[in-house]
Prior knowledge:
This protein is α/β, with parallel strands linked by helices. It has helices spanning 10-18, 21-29, 38-41, 95-101, 105-133, 155-162, 179-192, 199-206, 297-300; strands spanning 32-34, 47-53, 77-83, 85-94, 145-152, 172-178, 216-220, 238-245, 249-264, 271-284, 287-289, 306-308, 318-324.
Amino acid sequence: MAYFVKTIETDVMSRKMLENRIWSALIASGCIEYGALERFVRQGGSFVTIPKRNKVADLERVDISSASALSPTAMSTTSDKAVVLRDVSFNSYLKHDAMLSGDNISAGISADYGEKVAKRLIKQTSNVLTGAIQAIDTPTSNCHVKDLGNAALTAQAVRQAKYLLGDAADDLRVMLLHSKVFSDLLRDTSVTYSSLDSVSGTTVITGRVPGMFGLDMFIVSDQCYNSNVGTGSSGDDRYHTYLLGANSVQIGWQAGPEIEVDKDITHPSTKNLVKITADYVVHLAGVAYTGSANPTDATIQTASNWNEAYEDHREVPAALIISNGNVYA
Length: 329
């Protein structure tokens, strides 16, 4: 039995990450492009510059009888910008505690870290989306945000948020929402669409969570709540619900997970110190980070620390709904 940590067992950590049902579902959905930024992030530094080719112009009718020359739409390359996020987990344990537990410490800590990193990546995705989506201000202010004020989430609000993207609405494929918000949505669909095989009816009868308006639903317990939003006048916390499209979120590792180990042999039972560090990027493609290096969670949740890096807002397949949670509890 190993009573001292020597290295992270990456296979164990990766397996535990994928055992997180939300993380594995987000990866499988294609809305998170995991490892997409590795070639840029590995260059080092606190920021990552990401070159991005703008899309071709929309198709439109051509007048073949006209003698006027066509005017081309210039396809340029813009520079997107991401920030490196830096996390640490510092722990100590005594040798006799490891012996009493009967664990293989290397495997046990690797498994623990896999669980923690999956939750942290979901939370950081929520933080980045909170700030970046609210920075999308062209062609109009907050054009990808549906703010319901103190009202609860409804099916109508989901449809309206989806179509903020115009003819790119169907590029959205995933809805990430808090369980309290989902309970409000269940109530709305059961009352408003009671005669239909609705979201609420299907869930109550089968126990499964279906999609709506072409969006698969992923329900979480804590990662979608944003403490920066504040509290509605009715006394209920306000929650963020995110609509995401293919490859909208890009994630890459600059360094990590890395482990450093030390021992204090002067302690009667030998004290072991284990520090795990992670340096990585979570980024919404098309919205550039403009804030300071090594940001706090609150910093990346703030819209003023982000700016547009797109030619057309429809290039950013993401939308945000802000609502009160559990209004009808």
